[in-house]
Write a structure and sequence with these properties.
This protein has 387 residues and is α/β, with parallel strands linked by helices. An eight-stranded mixed β-sheet has the order 11-12-13-14-15-16-18-17, with helices on both faces. It has a five-stranded mixed β-sheet with strand order 3-2-1-4-5, sandwiched between helices. Strands 8-7-6-9-10 form a five-stranded mixed β-sheet, with helices on both faces. Helix 6 packs across helix 7. The two termini are 44 Å apart.
């Protein structure tokens, strides 16, 4: 089995392509960094795949470190892999920092208990204990440094992690000489061993983030829909959403290239289902001076007629307003009645027609309608309502 794994939850951005049959990495790329994981991750994945001599089609399972780690970093890795999962139609496995570090230090433990201790800041540590057989003997917890020292005062084994040096450990607990950053190869190996691939890969948080997440541009009350900016790390997610909506859909490379152009931005719609956030649509924008162009708008077929498209158009207008935009332009096929009704309902007016602009798969052509919205003339859009 070929597994692609990433870790963006810590002070490094790491990618590994792992062969579970040979039990070895085919490629392993890692760069230390405190921030910038989202901007670097896509390129590193391409580098790792090329170095391994495989294609995306060869990947049978995906994996990401699910934390604990930095709040934003955990979300970047998991969101990227969820998007890739939509494209490849393979499962994503979340591997915790605790499991990865415990397994990495297993060979050095001498068949002893392993205590994974990560610095949680604010005078606290994240801690989980594993016995010599790899079973959890102390559940993952957030503890004060003194409290953790008291817990370990009569224990034996080996400690690993960035928080091990913060605690006054007894002589019977030694500190492992291994990295406190999870190894992407170990994440891949553990993911390959997972027997349950149906569970969603979700962040493993032990406490609320130190900083509040960015507020969504729109919170759609009736459908539990939120819309947030999405950078280059979401290129594969956007491509997966675009594919079922257009015959000439853009792939991940095209999305990444568009997002890299000056003034480009994407707004991603996330639908809440059973307590989890699922991508269901997006709008891609490009700003120049005081004008903005909507490059594409896509909503998954199963999410249509639930206000998603309208909410995305609302988010685009708000984004434009914050950017100082005075006029927004859009273009769509004349025979796309749903698009015409939507754009007209949110205040866009037709400016002209481009004859035979779109080429259809059956060899025919469709006219393109150009439309625009002057923000000074726009009326506030309600938060509810179907397109």
């Amino acid at each position: 089995m070929i597994v692609l794994s990433v870790d963006t939850a810590h002070a490094a951005c790491s990618v590994c392509v792992f062969d579970t049959v040979a039990d070895r990495p085919l490629s392993h790329v890692s760069e230390p960094m405190q921030r910038g994981h989202a901007e670097r991750l896509t390129d590193m994945v391409h580098e790792a795949i090329a170095s391994a001599g495989i294609s995306l089609a060869d990947i049978e399972r995906l994996a990401a470190c699910s934390g604990p780690g930095t709040f934003t970093g955990v979300r970047i890795g998991l969101a990227f892999m969820r998007g890739l999962s939509l494209v490849l139609k393979v499962p994503v496995i979340g591997i915790t920092t605790f499991s990865a570090l415990a397994q990495s230090s297993r060979a050095a433990s001498g068949d002893r208990n392993i205590w994974v201790i990560q610095d949680a800041r604010r005078g606290e540590v994240y801690l989980e204990g594993f016995d010599r057989d790899g079973n959890v003997m102390h559940p993952a917890s957030v503890l004060g440094i003194a409290e953790a020292g008291e817990l370990l005062s009569d224990r034996t084994g080996m400690a690993v992690g960035s928080g091990a040096g913060l605690i006054d450990l007894p002589d019977e607990v030694t500190v492992a000489d291994v990295s406190s950053i999870p190894d992407a190869a170990m994440i891949a190996r553990l993911a390959g061993q997972a027997t349950d691939t149906s569970a969603a890969a979700v962040p493993f948080y032990l406490r609320a983030p130190d900083a509040k997440a960015q507020l969504p541009l729109v919170k759609h009350r009736e459908s539990a829909l939120s819309i947030e900016p999405a950078g280059a790390a979401y290129a594969t997610v956007l491509a997966a959403l675009h594919a079922p909506c257009f015959e000439d859909a853009w792939d991940g490379d095209a999305m990444a290239a568009l997002l890299a152009t000056p003034g480009a931005a994407a707004l991603l719609a996330m639908q809440e289902k059973a307590g989890e956030q699922h991508p269901c649509g997006f709008v891609l924008l490009r700003t120049a001076a005081d004008e903005m162009e909507i490059l594409t708008l896509a909503v998954l077929p199963q999410a249509r007629r639930r206000g998603v498209a309208r909410a995305l158009m609302q988010a685009a207008r708000r984004y434009a307003g914050k950017a100082g935009t005075r006029r927004i332009f859009i273009e769509y096929a004349e025979d796309n009645q749903a698009a015409h009704a939507l754009y007209q309902s949110v205040g866009y007016t037709s400016d002209g027609v481009r004859p035979d602009y779109y080429r259809n798969s059956d060899g025919t052509a469709s006219n393109a309608i150009t439309a625009s919205l002057c923000l000074g003339d726009a009326e506030p859009l309600p938060l509810s309502g179907n397109p």
